[in-house]
Amino acid sequence: MLTRPQFDLACCALVEKYAHTLSSPATTPLKGWSWNEHALINGLGYLSRKTIHTHRLASGKDSEDLYTHELYNEEYEELQDESTAAPSLNTTLICQQYIVYSATFQVPAFYFTIHDHNGSSLGLADIVNTSLFRPSVFDTAEYTTFALSIPDQSFPLLSQGDHPTLGTPSWYFHPCESAHAVDELMSELGEAEWTTEERIIRWIEMWFMVVGTVMSQKSQMEAEITGSTKCLLDCVPTLNRACYGSIVRSKITEIVQIIKARMLRTSIAASRSLFRTVPSHSRSMSIEAVIVAASRTPTGSINGTLKSFTAPQLGAEALKHALASKNIDPALVEEVYFGNVVQAGVGQSPARQAALNAGLSKSSDATTINKVCASGMKSVILAAQSIQIGDRSVVAAGGMESMSNAPFLHPRQNPAFGKYTAIDSLELDGLWDVFNNQAMGNCGESAAVKLDISREAQDQHAIESYQRATRAWKEGVFDAEIVPLTVKGKKGDTIVREDEEYKRVIYEKVPSLKSAFKQGGSITAANSSPLNDGASALILMSAEKAKELGLQPLAKIISYADAGVDPIDFPIAPTVALPKALEKANLTVKDISLFEINEAFSVVVRIAEKVLNIDPAKINVNGQVNTLLVELGSRIIVSLVHALKSGEYGAAGVCNGGGAASAIIIQKL
């Protein structure tokens, strides 16, 4: 582990040392780096360098040889095998490399981008086919579009993510894995005579050597280790600590002596003046938030199988299941954010009820969020922010709703004459546009006209959503996320394991249904959301806390955004929020593998497809059956987490009453 000032000291010392070292293949990993300070924030410096890698087809050979040009102050030196005949140029790759400080793991991290000679960025499938990495790295590796993993490792070896300082899309080796390998070697190099500064710098040198064993480069120390003694470094590309223990002790000792001799021959004078104070916020703002568990109850129809559960009871069941699914001690949860919209009659602090009934510590805090349909998603966003700023390490988030238990309201004042008029709290608090004094469905009709979304297009979407949900349930797609609920009855207990609504559709009647909100309109009972009950919960942690607990994260939070529009245009709001979240993540629509967009009305999804040019095959791949209200916002994140494949990016967007929306981008780990 290194502190930020220690990282700065070691990096600056290495730049100074190797600036005066002769260039050779042996010094390639350590030469050519320059120290860069952040343009706006002091204390966020990093190392960078650019290399040119030329693939040339050697004369009389069928294989490609790799030539590397290191760019030092706008000049480069060609490094090549002298025995190779002069070849003809085939293709050139430009690799921009960075060494940054990982505040989450308190170790260096290696980030890089690779472009072809036209400046086009290479994808992972192209990268693994280059000569930039040693072939042994990929022997047992599994890779997707956005990540490369070694079996049985807690984190991907290679992933796509944002440069922590520049915010630009990059590839990176997971800092935790490379640091493990360095710690193994450093444990053999313990030297009482080293000063603190010397040990820090030697740690960084060892780190460069480990990274160099994955890339097609040789460090100065590795160049001296030949013959059978090189077996230790051959293990490093797998970055598996267990492999070190299997090597004969004598070999480790022999290699350690070589490395130690090299280190002791080199005196690195490090000045304490390189230490400097880092602003207290700079580390906390870069803490990575990950999702380690995600569960949801079945979705019950209004006055259906789940009518006996209050919203907090449903929330408690979802939260208990999420914790139990990963054997997480409830006492670890420091804070809870839970969405709940129709709160009349629910009782004080619905989120607190759900938390304590799920077994959380009484010392934990809980906050109930009301952003209408986006409440559950906003809860997840707030949980992520709490972790990213360093305020919390473990936070639970979710949403819960029981429309079946929404009461009718009577005015407190007695009428002077005549009858009482009861008000439906479900309609007033959840389904009524207070700004235009009309049902939310009328806003949907307005949006359909503005964006020219036909009745047929909406019906087609509704039918497809039901069909996708039916297929998903049949194939067991939701099994990993569902919380079975026991419903007590006069004839015995019933266990509810499936959503209720998807089985109630009659496809033949969908095209002939009357419009529900406007004479001659396009929105019907089939292509708008049914009323329902349900809850969902997610457990978020800092990546460091997940590592400490030995938990494999499901996904990490990449970015999020909120957006506001005219209240009548609320169905259009996701088309504003989603681009904002994508821009923060430096991603485009094409980079997203799966989308989850709320189906309060089918017109919402059709508008998103049209405005954002999203492939319909990527949206709600397992159906939503037009789930409504607060549980939806977190529920679609739960389903998205489980639907994505390792390394893929997913985006979720939810519109909400009042003319707004929330969106979130995650990456499956």
Automatic annotation (TrEMBL):
GO cellular component terms attached to this protein's record: mitochondrion
Domain Thiolase N-terminal span(s) in chain numbering: 290-543
Compartments reported by the entry: Mitochondrion
UniProt xrefs under InterPro entries: Atg3/Atg10, Thiolase, Thiolase-like, Thiolase_acyl_enz_int_AS, Thiolase_AS, Thiolase_C, Thiolase_N
Highest taxon above the source species: Eukaryota
Coiled coil (residue ranges): none
EC number: 2.3.1.9
Gene3D superfamilies reported in the protein's UniProt record: 3.30.1460.50, 3.40.47.10
Domain Thiolase C-terminal: 551-668
Biological process terms in GO annotation: autophagy; fatty acid beta-oxidation; protein transport
Cited CDD domains: thiolase
Broadest EC class assigned to this enzyme: transferase
Subunit structure: Homotetramer.
Family statement: Belongs to the thiolase-like superfamily. Thiolase family.
NCBIfam families (alphabetical): AcCoA-C-Actrans
Protein name per UniProt: acetyl-CoA C-acetyltransferase
Organism: Armillaria novae-zelandiae
